[in-house]
Amino acid sequence: MALNNSLIFATLSHSFRASRFSLLGLGLIFCLCFAGCADGNASSIPSLQLTEADLAEADLVPDSELGSTATPQGRMALEKTDLKFGFIKLTDCAPIVIAKEKGFFADEGLSVEVIAQPNWKTLLDNVISSNLDGAHMLSGQPIAATIGFGTSAEIITPFTMDMNGNGITVSNSIWEQMQQNDENLRSDTPKHPITADSLVTIVKAKLAAGEKLQMGMVFPTSTHNYELRYWLAAAGINPGFYTESDIGGRTDAEVELSVTPPPMMPATLEAGNIQGYCVGEPWNQQAVEKGIGVPVCTNYDIWKNNPEKVFGVTKSWAEANPNTMIAVVKALIRAGQWLDATDDTGKLINRDEAARILSRADYVGADFGVIKNSMTGFFFFQKSDKRPMPDFNVFYKYYCTYPWYSDGVWFLTQMRRWGQITEPKTAEWYTETAMKVYKPEIYLKAAKLLLEEGLIEEADIPWETDGFKPPTADFIDGVTYDGKDPIGYLNSHKIGNKDN
Amino acid sequence: MERFKYSLLKIINISGLTFLEPVVRLCYGEEPRLQLKKIGRFIVIPAVTFMIFIWMWSIIAPVYKTKSGEVPTPAVVYEAARGVREFHDRETDKQTAYSLDGQDREASLDQVQEELKAITAEKVKADAEVMSAEIARKAFITEKLEPLKAEYETKKEEFLKAQLRRDRALKIKAAKVEKGDLQGKNNLLGYVRGHQEQTAAELDELAELKTEQDDVRNLNYPPLLEALKFQTDVAEQEQYLTKKEEILSKSNRSLKLDEEEDKLKQLQRQYASATGPDLIPIAQQMLRVEERMNNISSSEYAKPWTLPMQIARSVACVFAGFFLATAIAIPIGILCGVSSTFMAAVTPFIALFKPVSPIVWLPISLIIVGGIITDPDKHWLMVALSEMPLIGWLQINPAFIASAITVALCSLWPTLVNTALGVASIDKDHINVARVLRLTFTQRLFKIVIPSALPLIFAGLRISLGVGWMVLIAAELLSSSEGIGKFVWDMFNNGSSETFAQMFVVVFVVGAIGLLLDRTMIVFQRLVSFDGAPAAI
Fold first, then answer.
1. Chain B nearest C-alpha distance from A25 (Å)
2. How many Cα neighbours within 13 Å face the side chain of A388?
3. Measured between alpha carbons, how far is residue A69 from residues A57, B275, B282 in Å?
4. Is A82-163+308-403+438-463 CATH 3.40.50.300?
5. Does B491 share its domain with B360?
6. Do B326 and B337 fall into the same domain?
7. Residue A66 pLDDT level (bands cut at 50, 70, 90)
8. Mind listing the pLDDT tens digit for each residue in A142-157?
């Protein structure tokens, strides 16, 4: 066999024959057939224009003679029926997936394609560039986009997808060191919540050796970033500040945080680039399953029933498709209700099926067993430590799906606390910004329709609220948060920017 | 017969499938010994090596264990490929179910309900099996774990006691040290250090024991794995059947249309009997129902992308990029070959841009394409492309275009350089003949320059296509444009027990398609070469 000389740029002398000429185009010509086919409108009656005479006649007749025209009843006219929604491979994308698989979207007359996105940045870009109609988003994303931190665009959210659902995992060696520092942890079932106190000496020792502990989170404006910072700061560890010139958020950091896409977390931890991370499910359970790390704290312990993901669309999309928007929210509310349905004993009845659906390769795709762990109300902290956590994922209970202004304000305070918002702002600014992003009016319209259709209970929805949850002190450090007093909240933290 | 033989041999020669040549010759009884020898060398030996490769793979793979599971054996990879295939089949099936109507739909529905009944019984069995396997596993693990746990506890207690005793002993020693006793103080320091080191060693030993326990907890229990696999298969089948049932009944297109038509008929009756201002709301409703019927009749099942579709899209994308590259590279290459001044002018650019990685080109082209096509749903190009037959289903979007541009930017260089070289090295005699015949520039270009350079141009195109294919997978992965690259990334992100095997499936798919593309280019290359362009491997 001759060697493959054609790979070498060799000069070869050739003779040519005209008969081969016709072959020249063969490899290059490719035909595109344009076949214009006009869509035939099924309506047989063409549209007619009213004449000037008709209109002039109408001007002369008094209103009383015309009688009132009843507004038409029936289903709303949808502006758009074929939709594309993006999601990240996390169990809290469940409302979107369930609304599709259980036919809630179809019930509203929507045909929805659900497309996995590689990371939060691409997801947001795809929503802004209209490649996607809407997406499963981090709560901080619409807010940050609206105030112009990072990518700038007006994104709104009429629906909160879930509460809780994150965990902080540390590598096995850090866990061993934590156990050495704190005798209480030397057990198969240590007492919870585990604070970062036992991490302090490790951080200090690393600093003394000229190193910084590296931890991963999923996005600069993610809940995970703020929760990890909260957890560290509650123990007096400085997780670093964002400044005008430092957009990595590492100024004065004692522990350095970096961004890694959720599905990459276990691999990055295993590779040793980070020694711990904060991420949503199933990536904490995956670490337990693979034996590469130990979840030490869930965000339920950091802030009981904290808001997690939202459903985000661009403001222009919502304005151009108001009825479709309402239909989407209706389907999502029903999906949340389905996910949180319980029997008389309080057992979640649909979660097994949900876990099965989510384990499909085109959705979350992790093994059923791993997804099931947290979805069905349990959480493995170690292989030997399985605990019931009925509220680990909340999709409907506790008015979870309502887009609370106070949630938006909390995220804004965290952005200010860590310097993502560089200047001090007034309390009114916080409220106004939250109102720009969170749209309970859309949510309530959808809920009202569902109530009329008899699909939800009246008690499920906070109809009369002003959008602010009552003040709560359910935090790991016991600080009280009142959405109406963001400045006071900022000033109540030991570590963090303070305003007057 | 002889003629047939020679045309057959010619086809084989041109297509580059030269390993078939001895088979044909043998069939015609031509020098059997020589042909058998050739068959042995070009068919039997490669086949045997491949078998050895598979055999070694299946032996070596299970030895190497990672935290993401064992390296998949050929059998596991085959299983994964079947899984991928099954997903495709099921989705296609649902798509068909959506558009079924009349008797076909009813027959299909009956069948699905039948199957559902069968699978429900199966499911009960599977669940019971998993349950008993789990109990068995627990017993199996506990049996191994108990002694380890006991050892751990005894050791722990032992160490604790030892530590306490050492503590007390140290205290006594410390009490004995006088104020000025330097030697004693130094000794004490040594004792404390020794105590600390011993404690650390004991902790290490405990940690070791703990790891051993974890290892036992991680032990595979084959019966449980089997039961779980069976359960998963059954549950997936059930899920698919339930969904199919729903698509055939509740959300079937023809049924939805019927429902709307009933509404329309009712409205028409109302419209006929109504008078005056009441007419308007009914008319509005009628128009709305009509619009909805239009929407429904043109609606499709929202089918997710499956690997076969993604492969087709990737191939389309690589060709889009390849043709773009060709359209840029050949004219520039010819100009470079014809004019050394032009060559001098563009050389810096070629030298500068050629080594740039696709990872750099992609974000740039994504941003540029995104800037031009701001609203993909309404942009005329996107609309035109989505309505074109044959390629409409590819759903060409900015990410696709950006990936194609990236492919073009990375793959145009071999063609460009080869074209320039081919044109520059035309036989001087040909040029002289052209001069004598006083051919015009165009005549010279099309009668002399291009035909002479064609073999080298095609050699370049072949390399370009190969480069393009490699670049494309990376580009798709980054731009999340549907295709093989996105499949790889999604499966990797799944992090499931199948991930590893699915990666191997992709290796073979990508390899096979690359091979096919290369072969196709060889055919073209041979068609335009006259001295039997060097055979390719």
1. 10
2. 4
3. 18, 12, 11
4. no
5. yes
6. yes
7. low
8. 999 999 888 888 999 9
* pLDDT per residue as tens digits for the range A411-434: 999 999 999 998 899 999 999 999
Tally C-beta pairs within 8 A across A and B: 212
In a domain, B68, yes or no: no
* Containing structural domain, residue B316: 307-528
Q: Which of B383, B490, B502, B524 to mutate to test the interface with A (most CBs of A within 10 A)?
A: B490
Cite the residue boundaries of each domain of chain A with CATH code 3.40.190.10. 82-163+308-403+438-463, 166-302
Do B370 and B505 share a domain, yes or no?
A: yes
User: What does the longest C-alpha to C-alpha distance in chain B come to?
Assistant: 119
Residue A362, C-beta contacts closer than 8 angstroms, at least 6 positions apart = A114, A116, B87, B304, B305, B490
Do B158 and B124 reside in the same domain of the chain? yes
CB of B228 within 8 Å of a chain A CB? The answer is: yes
pLDDT of residue A160: 95
Burial of B380 (0-12, 13-18, 19+ CB in 10 A): exposed
Residues A82, B287: C-beta atoms closer than 8 Å: no
pLDDT digits (tens, 9 = 90+) for B291-309: 888 888 888 888 889 999 9
* Residue position matching structure tokens 């989705």: B91
Say what the pTM is. Answer: 0.82
Could you say which residues from 301 to 360 on chain A have a Cβ atom under 8 Å away from some Cβ of chain B?
Answer: 353, 356-357, 359-360
Chosen for mutation from B43, B239, B493 (greatest number of chain A CBs closer than 10 Å) is: B493
Q: Could you report the per-residue pLDDT of B56-91, keeping only the tens digit for each?
A: 999 988 888 776 677 888 998 999 999 999 999 999
Instruction: Report residue B459 as tokens.
Output: 């050699």
B113 touches chain A (CB under 8 A): no
CA angle A254, A260, A266 (to 5 degrees): 100
Q: Collect all residues of chain B within an 8 Å Cβ-Cβ radius of residue A21.
A: 451
More confident site: B532 or B387:
B387
Among candidate residues A133, A111, A359, the one with its CA nearest the CA of residue B233: A359
pLDDT of A417: 93
Residue in B closest to A263 by C-alpha: B493
pLDDT band at B527 (very low <50, low <70, confident <90, very high): confident
The verdict on B170 and B221 lying in the same domain is: yes
Residues 6+ apart with CB under 8 A from B31: B25
Q: Is A89 exposed, middle or buried (0-12, 13-18, 19+ CB in 10 A)?
A: buried
Residues 363-392 of A with CB under 8 A from B: 364-370, 383-384
Domain boundary (B47, B63, B79) is at B63
Place B2 in a pLDDT band, splitting at 50, 70 and 90. Answer: confident
- CB of B281 within 8 Å of a chain A CB? The answer is yes
Residue A76: what pLDDT? 64
Q: Is residue B535 part of a domain?
A: no
User: Could B68 and A368 be called an inter-chain contact, meaning their C-beta atoms sit closer than 8 Å?
Assistant: no
**Cβ proximity of A227 and A166 under 8 Å:** yes
To probe the interface with A, which of B43, B382, B481, B494 has the most A CB atoms within 10 Å?
B494
Tell me, yes or no, whether B298 and B312 share the same domain.
Answer: no
Residue B70 domain-assigned (yes or no): no
Domain end position, chosen among B304, B319, B338:
B304
Q: Which of A16, A260, A321, A364 to mutate to test the interface with B (most CBs of B within 10 A)?
A: A16
Query: Is A116 in the B-facing interface, judged by CB distances under 8 Å?
Result: yes
Number of domains in chain B: 4
What mean pLDDT comes out for the span A84-102? 93
Judged by CB atoms closer than 8 Å, whether chains meet at A71 and B281 is answered as yes
What residues form DSSP beta bridges with A216? A258, A277
Co-location of B106 and B144 in the same domain:
yes
Whether domain A166-302 has CATH 3.40.50.510: the reply is no
Which pLDDT score is estimated for A354?
94
From chain B, pick out residues whose CB is under 8 angstroms from the CB of A78. 295
Residue count (chain B) = 537
A112 touching chain B per CB within 8 A: yes
